[in-house]
């Protein structure tokens, strides 16, 4: 198995005052060594100040989802969906032939912190759809919880609100975990032909930091040590395992992306 670190401080991004943002992959204005990985196109870690946000804008031919770390994110779109998302929520927009939406901090007091992820759809010209799911922290503690999975896979329902993973029209499966101090979780790479890929991202849960990663820390396979803000590219054979051990003193939250 091969790991390649994407250090937090090497991510693109900027502090605009109302928005503090990191970009794991290339986006306009912020070139990076890697512009995608499998179906993954974007992992942006954003912090938006109270009552600020992104005005009405359009997307097409992309699967877009947000993972709420803290605060409130108010969403409104051209399909008539209006709601405020909080910690534990995942919002999935299948943009298909085209949608327009706005996203604002739903609080006038507290910053909102979330990861927005884009994935390339497995087919084009889909009808736009919108989904939300909620996953309490208790389900993630010392467990890799499947929170996003391809349409048609086990337990996935194409319903606006439902139990189980959020449906995505893309070859990406996402797991969320909160690993307690001195504990570990293990992920087995799925069956497939040839080398399997995965990506791991640790949010900056303890606070915004543009320098070397700090905060909660993890060790992968008794080898690579990572901290908040770091990402890791993974290559391995089907059936090989990734062991994610918390080597810090505070719970470590992470997302793991399985990529075909």
From TrEMBL:
The Pirin N-terminal domain, residue ranges: 10-118
Classification via Pfam families: Pirin
InterPro entries the record matches: Pirin, Pirin_N_dom, RmlC-like_jellyroll, RmlC_Cupin_sf
Family that this chain belongs to: Belongs to the pirin family.
PANTHER family: QUERCETIN 2,3-DIOXYGENASE
Entry protein name: Pirin N-terminal domain-containing protein
């Amino acid at each position: 198995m091969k790991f390649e670190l994407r250090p937090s401080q090497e991510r693109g991004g900027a502090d605009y005052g109302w928005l503090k943002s990191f970009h794991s992959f290339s986006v306009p204005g912020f070139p990076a060594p890697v512009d995608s990985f499998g179906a993954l196109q974007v992992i942006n870690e954003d912090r938006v100040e109270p009552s600020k946000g992104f005005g009405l804008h359009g997307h097409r031919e992309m699967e877009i989802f947000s993972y709420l770390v803290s605060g409130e994110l108010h969403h409104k779109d051209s399909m008539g969906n209006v709601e405020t998302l909080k910690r534990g929520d995942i919002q999935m927009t299948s943009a298909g032939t085209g949608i327009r939406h706005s996203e604002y901090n739903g609080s006038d007091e507290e910053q909102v912190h979330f990861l927005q992820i884009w994935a390339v759809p497995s087919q084009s010209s889909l009808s736009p759809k919108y989904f939300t799911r909620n996953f309490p922290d208790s389900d993630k503690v010392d467990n890799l919880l499947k929170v996003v999975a391809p349409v048609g896979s086990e337990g996935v329902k194409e319903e606006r609100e439902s139990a189980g993973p959020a449906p995505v029209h893309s070859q990406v499966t996402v797991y969320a975990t909160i690993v307690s101090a001195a504990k570990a979780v293990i992920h087995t790479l799925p069956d497939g032909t040839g080398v399997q890929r995965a990506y791991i991202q640790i949010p900056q849960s303890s606070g915004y930091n543009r320098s070397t990663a700090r905060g909660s820390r993890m060790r992968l396979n008794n080898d690579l040590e990572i901290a908040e803000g770091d990402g890791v590219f993974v290559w391995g054979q089907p059936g090989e395992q990734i062991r994610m051990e918390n080597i810090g003193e505070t719970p470590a939250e992470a997302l793991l992306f399985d990529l075909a």
